[in-house]
Specification:
single chain; 146 residues; alpha+beta; 7 strands
Amino acid sequence: MSKAARAIILKEDKLLLMRRLKHGSEYYTLVGGRLNGDESPQEAVIREVKEETGLDIIAGRLVFAEKHPEPYNSQYIFLCEVAPHSTVEIQSTSEEALMNHVGINMHIPEWVSVKNFDKLHFNTMQLQRAILDGLANGFPDEPVVL
């Protein structure tokens, strides 16, 4: 089964999401992606955040695990703190930059107001509900399986 690692990144009253335009549909997901080889979820989230945003994670803790049947990825969701930065952009050497360049399966990182997060078409509703609960009541100290 494939596994992915994704990041919840907050800045003031905003959440960093990836807007996806894929096969004619538009939706949002967290920044992140599949684990490579024997890479750990922690290693993957650090690499994926860097590739997709240019940001460096300086702290992160696992808050959710989301299980999915094949062919979908099971996901490890980390609450992350990033180093100070000025811009957020997909790095030119990433897989996402290549897909964006050829105009398929577009990836666009965006800061979204947490007040509007519940209105977005998010990739998985159970994760969206868990994030909304975390924003309102605090994220769990121990990982929760969704």
